[in-house]
Amino acid sequence: MKVGFALPQFNKQAFEVARTVEFAREIEAAGGASLWVGDRNLAAVHPRIGYGGRGNTIPPELNPAADPFVLLGVAASATERVLLGSHVLVAPLYTPVQLARSLTTVDLISGGRLLAGFGVGWSPEEYEAAGLDFTARGARMDELLDALDAIWTRDPAEYRGEQLTVPLHHAPLKPARRPRPPVYLGAHSERALRRIGERADGWLPLCVVPSFVDVDGLVAQRDAVAEAARKAGRDPETIDSVLRVNIDAGTSTEEVVSAIRTMGERVGIEHVMVDTMYSDESVDQALDRAGRILDGVRQG
C-alpha cells in the first residue's frame, strides 16, 4: 500500500505554509509515497450549493486556502522521490494555457513526478468569480482535457472548441513525463465516471473516516469506470486509483489505518492520500499523525 499526505494547505495548517519544505522532506524521509494539494478558489459566505454538492454550507476549515501550484512547486524542489499530485484541481476554472504552464513547470522541477488530478467542482460562486458558466463545467472539462493534450504534445499547438479556444502558438516547453503527465479525475456522477473510463489515466475516489466509508459505493463506482473503459476499447486494469482519506476531528489513528486496510482488501485500492486538515490543527500534529499512520500500515 502506498500512503501519501496532503501538504499544509487548508484550515490552521495553511497559516504554517512556510513549513512546506520541512513537511515535504519529513514525509519523504518517513517513507511517504506522495504529497498532495486540493483546490479552493473561494469559500462563499452564503453558498447556493454546499460542500461536495450537498446542502448549503461549507466547512470553515476550507476558508483559509493556500495556492496549490505554489505548494506543488515548493514540494517538488524539496524532494527527490515522492509523487506530487492534486486531488483535485477544479480544472475548468483555469484557462488551458495557464493550467498547462503551471503543471508543466511542476513536472519539470520534479523530474516527471506529477499526477495531474482534476475535478469539475461543486461551487457556483467559484465559477461566478471566474466569469464562467457553472452549468457548462462538464463540457468545459471535456474540452480542457483535449486542449491540454494538444498543448503538451504538439508544437506549435492550438485548440478550437465550443467552450475553449487556444490560438496557434509556440509550445516548445514540454513536461518531463512523455508524452504528458498522467491525468486523474475525480467523479461522482454517471457522466463523470464514464469520462474516467473513456479517457483518464486514473480515478480519484473519496472517503471520510469514520463518517463516510462507503465500501459498496466505491466498488460500484469502480465497476462503472471499468464498464465505460471496456466500451471505449480500453483495459480497465490500466486505470490507476488514488483514494483520498479525509479524517474527521477526534478520530483515532487506529481507525484511519483500519479504513485504509479495508479499502485495500475490498476495493483493491493500492494508493491512498491522507488529508489531516479536519483532524490536526498544526503541522507538528499532522507530521506526528502521518508517522503513526505509516507505521500502522507497514505493520499490517
TrEMBL record:
Keywords: Flavoprotein, FMN, Monooxygenase, Oxidoreductase. InterPro entries: Lucif-like_OxRdtase_Rv2161c, Luciferase-like_dom, Luciferase-like_sf, SsuD_RutA_monooxygenase. The keyword Oxidoreductase applies. Pfam families: Bac_luciferase (PF00296). GO terms for molecular function: alkanesulfonate monooxygenase activity. GO terms for biological process: alkanesulfonate catabolic process. Gene3D superfamilies: Luciferase-like domain. The keyword Oxidoreductase applies. Residues 1-264 form the Luciferase-like domain. NCBIfam families: F420_Rv2161c. This is Probable F420-dependent oxidoreductase, Rv2161c family. It comes from Actinacidiphila alni.
